[in-house]
Structure formats: C-alpha cells, structure tokens
Amino acid sequence: MTLDRLQNYIGGAFQPPLSDAWMETENPYSAAAWGLIPRSGAEDASAAVAAAKQAFESGPWAEASPTARAGMLRRIAAVVAENAEELARIEVRDNGKTFAEMHAQVQRIPDWYNFYAGLADKIGGELLPEARPGHMTYVRHEPLGVIAMITPWNSPLMLLAWKLAPALAAGNTAVVKPSEFTTASALRFAGLVGEAGLPAGVLNVVGGLGAEVGAALTGHPDVAKVAFTGGVSGGRAVYAAAAQDLKPVSLELGGKSPNIVFGDADLELAARGVVSGIFGSGGQSCVAGSRLLVQRDLHDAFVARVVELTEKIRLGDPMSPETDIGPVANRPQFDRIMTCIGWALEDGATCVTGGTQVQDPEGGPGLFVAPTVFTGVSNDMRIAREEVFGPVLSVIPFDGEAEAVAIANDSPFGLGAGLWTRDVARVHRVAARLQAGSVWVNTYKATSQIAPFGGYKASGLGREGGVEMIADYLQTKSVWLNL
Ligand code: NAD
C-alpha cells in the first residue's frame, strides 16, 4: 500500500522537507501507518521563519488594517465551521479520541477566532499625562513578529486556535510545529485557510520532531516568542533555550488535578463529574481529574458508585457513536500508562477496577487500557504525584476542609481543580485557597475563549483565553515628542 505523503506548508505553498526525510504517521485504532509526514530539520524551520518574517514586514498582512485582520479571522472561523467534520476525522485518525469528542471540539474552535476577531480592532494606544515639561508622550501596542507555536497531540487544532487566534488578531505571523503524532490536521487547516485568502507566509506549518524542528524554531533569532503546549520536560527545554535569547514564552503543561468531594455535595452529580473528569478522552487531557479527594465518611459508598459508573464505560472504535473511549493515542503513551499502573501496585495502592490492557471488542490491534481506579493511595505515592495522561484515577480520603486543601495543593502541578459541595461559603473559601489556574465548582473541565486558562507551578507559565491575554502577543512602546 502506498502511503499518503503530506508536505510542509511554507510561504503559502505545500513543499517537501529540504532534506527529503519522512516519517510514518499511524492510526492508533488500526495500529497501521496511513501516511508519511515530513521529518523537517533546521533548514525547513529557517525557511518557514523567513516566510513568516517577510509576511510580517511587508505585503498584504503587514499592510492590513485591524478591521481587515478581524475580517480574516472571521473567515478562518467560517472555514473551520464548514470543514469541521473533515478536520475532526483527521484528528481521530491520528489520536484515537472519539469522533463525538473531536467533532464537538472542532465545532467550538470558530468561537476562538471570532472572539479575537472582535478584539483585533480594539487594540488602542494611550496618550499619557505630561511626563516631562514640554513633552508629549504616547504609548503604542505593536505586534511582536514571528511566533513559534508548538502543540501536542491530544487536542491539536483547538490548542493551536488558543495561540493562533490572539496572535493573528494582534498582527503577528506564525510558524506551527504540530505534534509528530498529529501533524495532518494542522496541514489541512493551513491549506484551507490559505485557499480562503490568508496571505502567504502568515501561517506556516512544519512537521517534524520536537528535539529537531521544535528546538530549531525555539532557538531561531527571528522568532519573537514561543507558545508551547505539551509535557513538562519539553516545556523546560523550550524555556531554557528561549532564555538564551531572552525570548518570551508561554507554557501550557501537564497536571495532576484534584476533584474534591465533600459530604454535602449532590453525590450523584459528583460521581458522574468525577468519572467523566478522569475517563473522558481516556484520561489524555491536561486537566484530567486524576486525584479524587473524598471525605472519609463517604469514601466507601462514593467509590462504589464511581466504580459502577467506570465499569459501564465502553471502549472501542473511536468513530462509532457507541464508543466512550478509543485506543490510547500511541505506543509510548501506552507504555507510560502501564508503567504508572505498575508504580501504584508497587507502592501499595489497591486496584479496585481495571489496571490491565484490554482487547478491542471488535478484535482490532489498537492498544486499550481498562479504566482504572486505585484506592488506598497516599498523596506521596508516585501515582498521586506524576501525570499519567491515561485512564487512571487515584482515590485519597480526607477528614476536613483544611486537609482537603492541603492535599490538593501538595503537588508539583496546579492546572485544574474540581470542588463538589452545596455550601456556598465553602465554595469561596476553598476556591480562593486552591493553587490551580481553573477551579470548577459542581462541574468539571469547562473551558471557553472568554475565560483565561493556564497553570500554577509546573503546570505552566502564562494564560490562554480571555481579553487580557492578547497583550501577551503585543509589545509596548513609549513615543516621546519634544514640543
Ligand atoms: P510533548 O511535550 O511530548 O510534545 C508537545 C510538543 O512539543 C510536540 O509538538 C513535540 O514535538 C514538542 N517538543 C517536545 N520536545 C521539544 C523540545 N525539546 N523543543 C521543542 N519542542 C519540543 O507533549 P505531548 O505528549 O504531545 O502532550 C501531552 C502533554 O501535553 C501532557 O503533559 C499534557 O498535560 C500537556 N498538555 C497541556 C495542556 C495545557 O493547556 N496545559 C493541554 C494539552 C496537553
């Protein structure tokens, strides 16, 4: 079988990597390669940066009025809406998440482009009070230049939109390095928006490995900022490399998010929220609620209900509407999940359901892990501290509110936290004390372009979403006039 060969998108045209090096890309459900993607190198990264720099400095994008930029963003939103089904199918083929999830996710992407379109023509300046006698001083907000955007495999086009929409609204240009596991959707998206009129060079996509093309982009002198989403080790490497050039970065990294259930909660709502919070996307979500902190006197009954719901989860073909969870996205991720399950057992946790590889009900070769619940976990065990990025829930009991907050915050991470209670005063007390970028009360995992999202501690640096974050893609200049 000949495999599809996908090319880089640079300067408004598809082109093969200069080295002519390729790597296979696999469908995790069929466990078979379906295509070849570029294994680009530093020279491809440089070509893409040069195209983005040229588009930033001259030509239709550089000359576009803010209103025209807003119009372009709205066109991108329309293109995504019109092609949502195709784009979602491409993502499912590469990451194995269910079509229902990826389609719903892609259908929400236009909201991001429309939201930041609304801000493109509201980036004002400021006339300052007289700062020196006889001088007039004003402030300009200018785009930064070429932004490198490095994205992971779990929600490829959505996490790109979180970066690209504000960056373009502010007048920047972009070079995208999608995950080597999910390169196809960004390439298709780039082709579609190019056909829709985005000027050449404004959006470039370069396929390849993080340590190769990702590192080349991060260290490139003409890249003004790196916007990264991925794991802690990649984030650290990007931060260290960017420090050499004193380049700004935004880092959206991993999590070990707690779901805290108090005795006064609506317990059925909480149990359902906890189960979907960890097992949705097979746990392959940065905000997966991987630690369940449950008030001790509820522990047994609540865990029993969680296990009952967990055992109803249907694994299988991600394209089938009957499926709740598809296969694990790739072999390294599967190995990581099984290693973490091994740690939990070695450290003395009790596996009450799951804990093993399971076969696809259709008999296919994809890698599946049974949704897994561990009890008897203490917060110092590896299973409670390390991000698994898989369908594994660790249950930790607590006695009172102060202990719940202490356990929740005793983590290297601080991305999300869930709080299940009907006590309004407790909601505000606990929400204020949790070290997490998003706190969800009687709900979990809600995100929107309207609300800032990001992490405390090792979960990252900077925020994505919301009005204010457009400032992260702008530079401030004071202009002094001697009158
Ligand atoms: P990853 O860190 O392995 O890869 C992410 C991207 O970074 C890929 O494109 C990869 O090629 C690139 N990369 C890796 N090393 C690099 C380097 N040294 N220099 C430059 N680029 C490099 O992450 P992943 O496995 O694709 O994704 C899963 C991780 O992403 C999890 O930790 C998850 O929590 C995190 N994540 C965070 C958020 C968030 O918004 N906070 C959202 C989704 C996923």
TrEMBL record:
Its EC number is 1.2.1.3. It comes from Salipiger abyssi. GO terms for molecular function: aldehyde dehydrogenase (NAD+) activity. This is Aldehyde dehydrogenase (NAD+). InterPro entries: Ald_DH/histidinol_DH, Ald_DH_C, Ald_DH_CS_CYS, Ald_DH_CS_GLU, Ald_DH_N, Aldehyde_DH_dom. Pfam families: Aldedh (PF00171). It is an enzyme of class 1 (oxidoreductase). Transmembrane segments: none annotated. Residues 23-479 form the Aldehyde dehydrogenase domain. The active site is at 252. Keywords: Oxidoreductase. Signal peptide: none annotated. Belongs to the aldehyde dehydrogenase family. SUPFAM superfamilies: ALDH-like.
